[in-house]
Design brief:
Rossmann fold, globular, 7 helices, 28% strand, 230 residues, alpha/beta, 4-stranded antiparallel beta sheet
């Protein structure tokens, strides 16, 4: 299978020198196209730093990161911004929706940055909202929706442009049990539809939903386990 994500000997060091902190310590990881992978670790394990690397929100101190065949580890901020916009759909714990925009306008926003014309982006946004079961709430603003519905809008925004990678950072962290289940079911459906999903979490139960679990501890990969095919 083809590697969508390939991390080679990745290090991230803060305060180099006597009091240095190795947030990531020689990490190697490959994720194939179409995989559903959970990256799990407790607070301070390095998982948030690793998510920032995978999401092109930061660059490593040393090592290489190939995303979709391109080495992104030495790119400038503006180059990384372009890569993020084209290659990665982000789902965050805090939804990050814009309060005065409707659901469909929130989903369209990243498509505007990609230069997609008005008619096409409206179609893509509608399709994405229907995919997450919100076809009937397109004109509602975030304050008129539950937390679970807001997170579904955020998922629609992440998937509308059909990026190669969906990166979900604690996507159920602010949700009740029922809403959490809904969100995880949507992520599973996306995976079953051929999307590559990388789920960052500290919760074992959430991680269990993925097909492969990568545990990080003290900046190193402690284990990498693929579940048996069901």
């Amino acid at each position: 299978m083809e590697h969508l994500i390939k991390v080679v000997d990745l290090c991230k060091i803060y305060n180099p020198g006597e009091n240095e902190v190795r947030a990531l310590d020689h990490i190697n990881l490959e994720i194939n196209r179409g995989e559903f992978v959970a990256i799990i670790g407790q607070s301070g394990s390095g998982k948030s730093t690793f998510m920032n690397m995978l999401g092109c929100l930061d660059i490593p101190t040393s090592g290489k990161y190939f995303l979709n065949g391109t080495d992104v580890s030495t790119m400038t901020d503006s180059q990384l911004s372009t890569v993020r916009n084209k290659e990665i759909g982000f789902i965050f714990q805090g939804f990050n929706l814009i309060a005065n925009l409707t659901a469909i306008e929130n989903v369209e926003l990243p498509l505007i940055y990609r230069g997609i014309d008005k008619k096409t982006r409206r179609e893509l946004a509608k399709e994405a909202l229907e995919m997450v079961g919100l076809g009937h709430r397109m004109e509602h603003k975030p304050a008129e929706m539950s937390g679970g519905q807001q997170q579904r809008v955020a998922i629609a925004r992440a998937i509308a442009a059909k990026p190669p990678v969906i990166l979900a950072d604690e996507p159920t962290g602010n949700l009740d049990t029922a809403s959490s289940r809904e969100i995880l079911d949507i992520l599973k459906e996306l995976h079953e539809g051929g999307r590559t999903v990388v789920l960052i979490t500290h919760d074992n139960k959430i991680a269990e939903q993925a097909k492969r679990i990568v545990r990080i501890m003290d900046g190193k990969i402690e284990s990498d386990t693929a579940k048996e095919m069901e």
